[in-house]
Design a protein that fits this description.
Blueprint: H1 4-13, H2 20-32, H3 37-45, H4 53-65, E1 69-72, E2 80-83, E3 90-94, E4 100-103, H5 109-119, E5 129-132, H6 135-138
Parallel strand pairs: 3-5
Antiparallel strand pairs: 1-2, 3-4
Helix pairs in contact: 2-3, 2-4, 3-4
Length: 143
């Protein structure tokens, strides 16, 4: 978890300053776990109504360049951000209900190694997402 003082130090090292908006946006990502810019915007507006969506996008890009957050694509829409310090994980996305689950990326290691040896391509397992139907939807438990 990034403290306010360490965030300030990271920003200062890049010639930037800690603003309330930057702090709120990072905290929203940390609190939400996985969040689109729109979800971050909704959370931040509960505290600071004047923060616009453009500020959210620009700040998320900055926080990613600083190595504090990372993103993945879990749908055709906006990227989903989460804290960069989290363990890498593979996302399981239900096409029916939108639920997101995670699995250990080591389950894909044999496949990634095979792709690397056969194709010379290194898979970034932390950005892998599988789309399908979760067990609840498959059993008709979610509607």
């Amino acid at each position: 978890m990034v403290s306010e003082s360490s965030l300030a130090e990271i920003l200062r090292a890049r010639g930037l300053r800690l603003t309330a908006q930057r702090q709120l946006i990072l905290q929203a990502v940390l609190d939400l776990g996985h969040a689109t810019p729109e979800q971050v915007h909704t959370a931040v507006r509960e505290v600071a109504a004047g923060v616009n969506i453009t500020t959210i996008y620009r700040t998320l890009e900055l926080l990613e360049r600083l190595g504090l957050v990372t993103h993945t694509h879990l749908s055709h829409g906006s990227p989903t951000y989460h804290a960069a310090g989290e363990d890498q994980h593979v996302h399981l996305v239900c096409r029916d209900c939108g639920a997101i689950d995670e699995i250990d990326p080591e389950l894909l290691r044999p496949l990634a190694d095979q792709v690397a040896s056969q194709r010379g391509f290194r898979v970034d397992i932390g950005h892998v997402s599988f789309f399908g139907v979760c067990v609840r939807c498959e059993n008709g438990d979610r509607k």
